[in-house]
Amino acid sequence: MFLREMKVNLKSFLIWLGVLIGIFLVVFLIYPYMFDQNNMEMFDEMMAIFPEEFLKAFNMDIASIDTVFGWIKTEGFVFILLIIGSYASILGSNILLKEESDETIEYLNTLPVTRSKIVLTKFLCGICYVFLMVLGLGIFNYIGLALSGDFDQKSYLLLSITPLFPALVFFSLSMFLATFTHKTKKMVGISLGIVFISYILQTIASVSDNVSFLKYFSIFTLSDTRYVIENSSLNPMIILISLMLIILFLGLTLIHYNKKELI
Amino acid sequence: MKEMLHIQNLTKYYGKIRGIENLDLTLNTGDIYGFIGPNGSGKSTTIRSIMHLINKNSGKVFVNGQEFLKDDLETKKIIGYLPSEISLYDDMAVREILNYHESFYNNIHSRRQELVKKLQLDEKKKIEDLSLGNLKKLGIVLALMHKPKLVILDEPTSGLDPVMQKIFFDILKEEKEKGTTILYSTHILSEVSKICDRVGIVKDGHLIHETTIDDLRKKNFNFLTVSSKDITKIKKELDLPIVYEDKDTIKLKNNLEINLVLKKLSNYKLDKLLIEDPTLEDLFLHYYN
User: What domains sit in chain B, N to C, each tagged with a CATH number?
Assistant: First the structure.
């Protein structure tokens, strides 16, 4: 059952990974030509125009984008978090619901498996793919950075792990929310909405101290790239909160799916 | 005879709309039970409640003497189910889904091969390429290949050509000989008369009548078709419900003794007199109306 689930979700995984790798491949190819001594000065002048809050929102106050690693630490992570977050959300929305929208649940339900096993198998499959997405992109970027010059390997390693936490929370939250509906399209819309609202809240929260409380409403706060860049370590509280949220949503999914009308 | 399926006071409402209400039903081992009723009468709701696809409001379902609960895997293993509209994994080939199904049970490969051969199913084909009839055949194999003791079939012949229907009925008869219990839900009454021992008629979510096929046929009414110039007087004399009327001809639903009818009619000059037994459809409508 697990292998069947892995096979079903392989194609979309490869497409999403391909898109992400494609974006970063372009960056690695063009970045060396973007910055030389002349346009570096122009760039510094341009950056000086931006308010501090804006730079803070993209971590540009603590990292410079004059190298490709600098870009990844700042703008690059916006892409990574948003794309992996979206992938995890869509996966979480679809993984259980697809059986209902395709009406294959009527067959699956006749097999001698419990509903809890169905949820756990699909959850494990989703976890594997989110993990593989982070790993796949991490390895690709590592190779790209290694070929582009020197970079702080430890900092990179820690940074490349950070998307895992919000992505797994998005996945488990979407899976739970999917137990309230039978319609895949509706659910995908809702979960992508949560991803983008989370991102907007986190960006606004980092702009001003007055609205910094908004970060507590954003799942992207769990990536905490700023903490990693500044401290060269992962925030253990973030790991703990992420784990607690994942377990909570998994538990709620199990409870609600066991009560759900499947057709 | 041992009870294989016992449904006790099963009730399911969709919001305020009644699906089924206080439905009781018992199938003994080896029964082929025709569960008949038109669309929307509550047949599929009953079956989906038994299979835990929907949540019943109240009532209990017992299979093989034990209450069948949602995660009772041992009971699930002895149930075969064919839904009215089967949906399977389109990306798989027939062989793959049969292998997948087989992986959940023990020692069922020979039965699988037997059924595939009988139903002439091509294992190499992709499920997405199967016609409705072939998809139904695959559904039948999946419902029967794990040698279930209780088989629940919801409109099983839709999409099957007459040759395949014959093969399918032969398979069901073999299953009956082995002692398999079959709940056969349909609105096609000719199928019921071919293979079922007993029937239950469902109306507005209630089981309104249960009988054997033979008793159903012996139901005490028939149809009289009379042609006569005195048709108005005959109509008044017999005072029976009119099924059809045209100039000098009338068709009546008769529940009087034939001798009495003949005695009454002997006073008139008749052009034609036809006495017909009701078809299963007529019997069904009799209960329904």
Answer: 3-217 (3.40.50.300), 222-288 (3.30.70)
